[in-house]
Design goal:
The chain is of the alpha/beta class and 335 residues long. The chain is 42% helix and 14% strand. It has 14 helices and eight strands. Strands 1, 2, 3, 4, 5, 6, 7 and 8 form an eight-stranded parallel β-sheet that branches. Helix 5 packs parallel to helix 6. It binds S-adenosyl-L-homocysteine. The site of S-adenosyl-L-homocysteine has 18 residues, from loops.
Length: 335
């Protein structure tokens, strides 16, 4: 597999068959090479993001997600602007300089409401970046959010295969709409993140290769890739979680495809593995998201089962793998 790793590092792309082989390979060389590429650009610095889960209301019915509208067991909540600003204050004191506002697709947060929140955060914390992760919105809406000060936007494409997309989503959702939104985000100058779950029901290695080709073409600044984890109140309750090794290989492959990528070791990865953050970083990740939502709502934002809460000793854990957190917006660095 060394030759495939070397080829990927050299050409930043492989053929479908080569990707399929490398995805299931078992060789530390892939991870070592990914770490080296990250170090060349970002050194041993890991960027910390503060995740604020500000609403769990959602109009959608994604089959995998615990926030889905049809999950009547979920206890719904929304945070006020004041509560969101309190999260920012605590996060800022803890050294966080990027706030990630994530939520379901909640019509309560109109452009007017959301731009007001964005402006308030930017007024109070002019040295901080704002990342939005609020699902699909139209071009004009995204434009207003960008003008209000949002810097980045996470919108996983979930799968680049139309049939697989249809197996994970209700008929009213489409891959085309999702991809359109991603292209709008790029055009509007957001640092844009796409991504997908690893081991989602029905996913094949060929699907993952297609995800990698889509990522190559979109050329995002960030990619989120973590394991699928079943949620008990969804149609996928009985499905099994994504494979740790496969997740780590995907992170390493993404790092080699685009060395400057902002690439998180996800909460889902840390949920399926005690050492998930360390393993992710060792495979080339350079971002960790810390939950800074009010403790009172954390249990309610359950997109999958057993989601871990705030982690202690993260600083020490990063030091153990030769890395350190920096107090920085941690913007994308082009090379
Ligand atoms: N409503 C926003 C945020 C969704 S939650 C949006 O549509 O972008 C963020 C991500 O969590 C999703 O994009 C999905 O990839 C992931 N996710 C949802 N359910 C999951 C599950 N059961 N296991 C693992 N990841 C999941």
């Amino acid at each position: 597999m060394r030759n495939l790793t070397d080829k990927l590092a050299r050409e930043r792309i492989l053929t479908r068959d080569e990707f399929k082989k490398l995805l299931i390979s078992d060789d530390d060389y892939l991870h070592e090479k990914a770490r080296n590429e990250r170090e060349k650009i970002y050194g041993n610095k890991i960027y910390l993001r503060g995740l604020i889960e500000f609403t769990n209301y959602c109009k959608n019915n994604c089959l995998y997600c615990g926030l889905r509208h049809a999950n009547t067991q979920a206890k719904r909540y929304r945070l006020t602007k004041g509560q969101i600003l309190e999260c920012c204050a605590a996060g800022y004191d803890a050294g966080i300089r990027t706030f990630v506002l994530q939520g379901g697709e909640d019509a309560f947060y109109t452009d007017e409401v959301l731009t007001d929140v964005i402006r308030a955060i930017k007024n109070n914390y002019s040295d901080c970046a704002i990342t939005l992760s609020v699902g699909e919105r139209g071009y004009d809406s995204l434009k207003l959010l960008r003008a209000a000060g949002a810097d980045r936007y996470l919108l996983r494409h979930e799968t680049a295969d139309t049939r697989h997309y249809a197996a994970l989503h209700p008929p009213e959702m489409s891959l085309a709409a999702r991809q359109k939104c991603l292209r709008d985000l790029k055009e509007l100058g957001f640092q844009t993140g796409c991504g997908f779950m690893v081991g989602s029901p029905g996913q094949t290695l060929a699907n993952i290769a297609d995800d990698l080709f889509f990522i190559k073409e979109l050329d995002p600044e960030m990619v989120g890739a973590g394991p699928f984890i079943p949620h008990s109140n969804t149609p996928f309750a009985e499905e099994k979680a994504g494979d740790l090794k496969l997740v780590l290989n995907i992170l390493a492959i993404l790092r080699l495809m685009k060395p400057s990528l902002l690439l998180p070791a996800t909460t889902a990865l840390a949920t399926i593995s005690n050492r998930g953050y360390e393993q992710g970083v060792n495979a080339g990740a350079n971002v960790i998201m810390q939950n800074i939502s009010p403790v009172s709502v954390r249990e309610k934002y359950r997109i999958y089962n057993n989601k871990i809460g705030a982690c202690e000793n993260l600083t020490q854990r990063m030091q153990n793998v030769g890395c350190e957190f920096v107090v920085s917006r941690g913007d994308y660095t082009s090379v």
